[in-house]
Amino acid sequence: MTCKNCNTEVNLKFCPECGQPANLKRIDGHYILHEIEHVLHFERGIFYTIRELLTKPGQNIRNYLSENRSRLIKPIIFIILTSLIYTLVSHFFHIEEEYVKHNALGNSSIGTILNWMQNNYGYASILMGIFIAIWLKVFFKKYGYNFYELLIMLCFVQGISMLIYAFFGNFRSDFYHKVIKCNDYSRISLYDLGVR
After folding, report:
1. Which of 24, 79, 154, 184 could form a disulfide with 159 if both were Cys (CB 3.0 to 4.6 A apart)?
2. What is the pLDDT of residues 144-185, one digit of tens each?
3. Alpha-carbon span 187 to 183, nearest angstrom
4. With 0-12 CB in 10 A as exposed, 13-18 as middle and 19+ as buried, what is 142?
5. Does residue 54 register a pLDDT over 50?
6. Would you tell me how many other CB atoms lie within 10 Å of the CB of residue 145?
7. How many CB atoms sit inside 10 A of residue 117's CB?
C-alpha cells in the first residue's frame, strides 16, 4: 500500500515519512469531540480558569507567563470564548440597550466608530488590547515584559472583564426592563411614592 499523502510505500499503521495513518477512520461524533478537545486543549477547563482569574488574577497570570501554562485555558482561546459569550448575552438579553447614547454625533466618523464599537464590543476589545499592549510596553519598560507577554495578560484581563460586564450587565438590563419600563407604563414615579 502507498501513502496517499506522500506516495511512500507503507507496511505499518503509519507512513514512516510523513506520519499519515495508513487507513483513515471515517469522521464521526467521536472525531469531532476529539478535535474540539484538541483545539481547546486545557487541563482543567474554562470554569477553573474563570475561578482562578477572579480569585487570584495577578498570581495566576504571572504563573502562566513564567511557570505553568497547562493549568489555564490558552489566552487567545479564552478571549475568543469570552467574546462569544459576551456577544451572545448581549444579543439575547439586550444589555447594551440605552447604555451609551451618542445620538448627538449623528453620522459623523466618530459616531460611526462608537456605534461599531458598541455593536461589536468583543471585537473592539480585542483590537483595543493591541493598542493598550503597545502603551503598556512604553510606560512599563522596567518590569521587563515583552509585547507578547503584555498581550497575553490583556487577553486574560479583557476576557474576565467581558464576562463580568455580561453578568452584571444582564442584571442591569433585567432591572431596567422590569422596574424602569414598568414605571413608564404604570406612571408610578418615586416622587408619587413619597421618595424625594
Report:
1. 79
2. 888 888 888 988 998 998 888 888 776 665 555 555 445 444
3. 6
4. exposed
5. yes
6. 17
7. 16
Express as a percent the part of the chain with pLDDT over 70.
Answer: 76
Query: What 3-state class would DSSP assign to 14?
Result: strand
CA atoms within 13 Å, Cβ hemisphere of 173: 17
C-alpha 101/C-alpha 111 separation (Å) is 10
* Residue 90 in this model has a pLDDT that exceeds 50: yes
Nearest CA-CA partner of 179 in 191, 194, 165, 190: 190
CA distances from 34 to 61, 116, 151 (A): 28, 36, 29
User: What residue type is assigned to position 154 of the chain?
Assistant: L
Closest Cα to residue 162, out of 96, 101, 92, 85?
85
**What is the model's pLDDT at position 186?**
44
| Cβ 155 vs Cβ 82: under 8 Å | no
Residue type, position 33, single letter: L
Hey, what's the cell of 5?
A: 499523502
H-type alpha helices, 40-74: 46-55, 57-66
| Grid cell digits, residue 56 | 487570584
β-partners of residue 9 are 2
